[in-house]
Amino acid sequence: MSTGDLLSIEPLELKFIFELKKQISCSLQLSNKTDSYVAFKVKTTNPKKYCVRPNTGIVLPRSTCDVIVTMQAQKEAPADMQCKDKFLLQSVRVEDGIAAKDITAEMFNKEAGHVVEECKLRVLYVSPPQPPSPVPEGSEEGSSPRGSVSDNGNISGADSAAVTRAFAERHDGPEKSVEAKALISRLTDEKNNAIQQNNKLRQELDMLRRESSKSRGGVSMVIVILIGLLGIIIGYLMKKT
To answer: Is it true that the peptide bond before 11 is cis, omega within 30 degrees of 0?
Structure first.
């Protein structure tokens, strides 16, 4: 920003985003720092190449004025994107109430005793931003399907589901078959073990039943023998008496 006594000028460099065969514009903002009317005039070293609107004007006290500088379409790019064109902005204090149509070249004549401020402006060419590199779509034959990728690097929901289904169909089929076979084999072994355990329990139960029957039969015979001996003893004692 210029720090003159009359006008503040921003920016001090005219930056054009250079593109062949295309008109390009940039703007200047002039701010009146005084309580007086200030007239301005814009000159350039290459008037055929640039159009300045307005090239002369009045900036009211404590107010601003925008100036648009347009570069005509160029057929060739300059070497190394360097530009030697320059602009000169002149400003002078004028009488209050003066209009832009009343501005004359004599107002900016230093030899006539007018206090004229001057500010030189450079011209810079800027290369246009590079477009983003294209993302290839689709997939080659035999390759896995690829979903579209968003700006933050994530796969979209629909494409993610499609990739998941394709991967499952290609890779999960054999694994699921092996797991099913292993599960069937394990269940069969467990069934056979259960049958064997059941048969073993039945055999042990039958043995317990037979031993219990034998035990009850032995006790009965002992009781019968004891009763018989007791009867013999009692009969013998009765005979003695």
So the answer is: yes
Do the beta carbons of residue 45 and residue 7 sit within 8 Å? Answer: no
Amino acid identity of 45?
T
Task: Give residue 152's pLDDT.
Answer: 47
pLDDT above 50 for 194: yes
Task: Look up the pTM and report it.
Answer: 0.54
Query: Looking up tokens 């295309």, which residue turns up?
Result: 22
Task: Show Cβ contacts of residue 216 under 8 Å, excluding neighbours closer than 6 positions.
Answer: none
Q: With CA atoms as reference, report the closest residue to 67 among 46, 34, 48, 90.
A: 90
Element (H, E) at 19: none
Is residue 138 within a helix (H) or strand (E), and if so which, with residue range?
none
Tokens matching residue 15: 């930056």
For 108-136, write each residue's pLDDT tens digit. 999 989 999 999 999 999 988 877 777 66
Contact at 8 Å (CB) between 37 and 93?
Answer: yes
